[in-house]
Amino acid sequence: MSSPGHGPGTGQGAEPAAGRGPGTGRGPGPGASRPRRAVFLDRDGTLLLEKDYLADPAGVELVPGALEALRSLRGAGLALVVVTNQSGIARGLYSEADYHAVAAELDRRLAAAGVPVDGTYHCPHHPDHTAPCDCRKPGPGMYLRAARELDLRLEGSWFVGDKLTDLLPARRFRGGGLLVLTGHGAEAARELPADFEAVPDLPAAARRILAAEAADPR
Ligand SMILES: [Mg+2]
Fold it and tell me: Of 54, 113, 136, 167, which one's alpha carbon is 20 to 30 angstroms from that of 161?
């Protein structure tokens, strides 16, 4: 499991929330006043069924069991944040407005089910089509922004997705990375580094996270 204790990776110390906690030797227990940790969820192939370059709200289809999975994670006190690379915008396949229409439909479904996410961030860039950016996963930009805007603690957060690029930020931020085998996950699983773990799907990821949280509340 990758949660704590593996190397800091490329670590350009990206802990905006550091220094905020009480800083005594004992870690604060659950409910202490440190910022919440989050589960950072990839969208396509993880939360939603993979549809190549989804740009139509009618194509929004949640992975089976997603709502219950999100509800259980929320219940454990974890923030839910969607982080999604949307290079289709840079590629000219669809517009920002198309993206936002899909995002709004997903938000509507989640809110209707009583499990709204705390935030959604997208990267519209691609280095072949736009200037380089720091937000395209596995870059840190979306996570740092979410931490700042939502007052989250990245260390010990969870990074869930169907590609390695969704998990790599777990190294930088010293969190846990879980690969789901939905979407492109089966391909990614063939060369999954040992500090990450594969689970069948989002509901299984939620169970894995809840088990780890119960064993080691932070
Ligand atoms: Mg994906």
Answer: 113
Centre of ligand 1 to C-alpha 166, Å, is 8
Topology of the domain comprising 66-181? Rossmann fold (3.40.50)
pLDDT in tens, 74-99: 999 999 999 999 999 999 999 999 99
State the distance from the centre of ligand 1 to the C-alpha of 30, rounded, in angstroms.
30
Instruction: Give distance in angstroms: CA of 86 to centre of ligand 1.
Output: 10
The rounded Å distance from CA 213 to ligand 1 centre is 24
Q: Give the pLDDT means over successive 10-residue stretches in the chain (218 positions).
A: 37 37 43 84 98 94 98 97 97 97 98 97 96 96 98 98 98 98 97 97 98 87
Q: State in Å: Cα 67 to ligand 1 middle.
A: 17
Backbone angles phi, psi at 84, to 5 degrees: -140, 130
